[in-house]
Amino acid sequence: MSTVEVFILAIIQGLTEFLPISSSAHLILPSAILGWQDQGLAFDVAVHVGTLLAVVLYFRQEVANMAIAWFNTLKGQRDNFDGQLAWWIIFATIPAGLFGLFGKDFIEAHFRSALVIAGTTLLFGVLLGFADIKAKQNVSIEKLGFKGAMLIGLAQALALIPGTSRSGITMTIGLMLGLSRENAARFSFLLSIPAIAMAGSYLTLKLALEAQAVDWSAMGLGSVLAFVSAYACIHYFLILVGKVGMMPFVVYRLLLGAGLLWFVLG
Questions:
Q1: Residue 116 forms beta bridges with which residues?
Q2: Which residues of the chain carry a pLDDT beneath 70?
Q3: Other residues' Cβ atoms within 10 Å of the Cβ of residue 103
Q4: What is the spatial distance between Cα 42 and Cα 126, in angstroms, rounded to a whole number?
Q5: Distance between CA 245 and CA 134 in Å, rounded?
Q6: Residue 14's CB: how many other CB atoms inside 10 A?
Q7: Cα distance between the two ends of the chain
Q8: How many CB atoms lie within 10 A of CB 251?
Q9: What angle do CA 136, 230, 208 make, to 5 degrees?
Q10: Which pLDDT tens digit goes with each residue over 134-168?
Q11: Model pLDDT, residue 227
Q12: Element holding 76 (H helix, E strand)
């Protein structure tokens, strides 16, 4: 990979991992449109490490509180909401893990195309817009409940289909369940931590088994760029979504989906 490709793809990964516009779609598009070669497993591992570090560092206080409270629940102390939230996130991650384990190879073989991305970009963009317009409640994360957390977790499993957007579909369901925009985004980001860790671990294991050559300089640069762009994205997205909502991202998805359809069918 050239330095330009590393720079562009790492920034794309960092920005789109947490925006409701699909990181997988944007990483596939350069190869589909510009003819770039696939970035390879090593680079995928690097950018996953960067985005994982960004979200953990940004929510370091919440993560630390949940970790401590979770260990306390093992000792029988269950009156702390942080401990409950940790269990919700663990159980809500299971559907994506199972779907990835049994369906990832099939999805990669049949759904990594510009046409599929166009369709899912449009479909889930419309759903996000509908949720943003119709969901006027302001339910706190505490009121979400285990059932609500699991519904968001089930929705997250669909994000393995390119163009769906993990953050987009989880925020959509969160809004439909009555969460405020900020709380829907915050829960989505916390839920992303084990999801990104699982994906990164899977890719690392696959890389080790295939014994591919590794360009360490590209991996290092990609990881740093993904970290910086992801951290900035989380910070400014939480500010922006509280002021203008999801509609700018809905419009972007609709334009992107229409453009992809024109590119594929034109």
A1: none
A2: 24-25, 27-29, 31-41, 136-137, 211-213, 266
A3: 14
A4: 34
A5: 12
A6: 28
A7: 30
A8: 12
A9: 125
A10: 876 678 899 999 999 999 999 999 988 888 999 99
A11: 96
A12: none
Q: How far apart (Å, rounded) are the C-alpha atoms in residues 177 and 68?
A: 28
**pTM of the complete model:** 0.90
**Lookup: tokens for 219:** 């991996």
* Sign, CA torsion 176/99/192/214: negative
Note the helical H segments in the chain: 3-16, 23-34, 41-58, 60-74, 81-110, 114-134, 145-157, 166-176, 181-210, 216-244, 247-265
The answer to whether 219 and 43 are in contact (CB under 8 A) is yes
Contact call for residues 168 and 21 (beta carbons, < 8 A): yes
Neighbouring-strand partners of residue 179: 139
Structure tokens at 253: 């998805």
DSSP track, 143-202: GTHHHHHHHHHHHHHGGGSTTS-HHHHHHHHHHHTTB-HHHHHHHHHHHHHHHHHHHHHH
Enter the DSSP assignment of 59.
T
What is the spatial distance between Cα 162 and Cα 138, in angstroms, rounded to a whole number? 30
The rounded distance, in Å, linking the Cα atoms of 147 and 92 is: 9
On whether the CB atoms of residues 15 and 53 are closer than 8 A, the answer is: no
* Tokens (6 digits) for 158: 């669909």
Query: What's the rounded Cα separation, in Å, for the pair 22 and 42?
Result: 20
- CA distance linking residue 246 with residue 221, whole number of Å: 31
CA distances from 136 to 83, 126, 231, 245 (A): 28, 17, 28, 11
